[in-house]
């Protein structure tokens, strides 16, 4: 929490200093003029050299504050990503094996890698939105103190902000992003352990089928990427056009109300112009938040896999004094419905278990190794049951 509070303080300081930069720029743009703030005329040093030096000094301070806040944001997101990955990995390590029976290896790999990146981008988006909100609030408040007539335009600003959210095609972007992640996960699954998969493909002469499948997924990924970029470009164009129209309308209104006070108009233009770059970043941050929510849900599902498995004491196992005769063994759901009769396990001998793929051989080994509890188990050894 202390780091978050420091980030907010740095962002607020950067927003205030950035507004001061706009005020210090006015004498350089229109010499001999100053700004009235809440009825008080700001006194700026005279002389071009002093004014330029003040502008450079305040600009350097603004850049330093932004740099420090960006470094702090990087540390926060890095710490967040490490925490997410550590928690889900610990949950997977301690998860009971039946809880993992319905999960594919590709999905687990996605949870540990790409899914964490999407969730981390969500925190980065929150931090960027926080900066944009603080900057917008400070800039608009100072602009209103300079030109109180801008209060008349407050409803217009609210309507334009609402329109900006409505025209951003967020639903389409979210749908395309989910499809893109699904295709990428499927491609990751196809590429997993490629040498072993290649032997399987060549053994069954499925080279053409495999190539066609790869080409189809690659085409969908390319199309999805193009659609994402087109939506981003269209949304950016609409937002920028809306911002231009809004600023022009506000300045015309302020000009009619303020009369000949050009200094106030120039300063207000500089303050509102600072908000233009945040329009695109705000749009992108909202998209990242919408994508991060499903990623966090998937992460939460794996963190909450179930009760942790019992910790086995680290003791050296005693050798079996006699052969173990397993009369019946059955697997618990959701493992495969496998039931075996009469298995003889002799110390020092290897027992070969064969069967069709997916019948439950690995699950049987999990039961025999003590990692999963069986549904039924009847056995005897040396006359003891």
From TrEMBL:
Keyword Membrane: yes
Keyword list, A-Z: ATP-binding, Membrane, Nucleotide-binding, Transmembrane, Transmembrane helix
A GO cellular-component term linked to this record: plasma membrane
UniProt subcellular location: Cell membrane
Highest taxon in the source lineage: Bacteria
Transmembrane segments: 46-65, 125-146, 152-168, 237-257, 263-280
ABC transmembrane type-1 domain: residues covered: 1-298
GO molecular function, a single term: ABC-type transporter activity
Membrane protein topology class: Multi-pass membrane protein
InterPro entries found in the cross-reference section: ABC1_TM_dom, ABC1_TM_sf, P-loop_NTPase, Type_1_exporter
Record Gene3D superfamilies: ABC transporter type 1, transmembrane domain, P-loop containing nucleotide triphosphate hydrolases
Name under which the protein is recorded: ABC transporter ATP-binding protein
Protein species of origin: Xanthomonas vasicola pv. vasculorum NCPPB 890
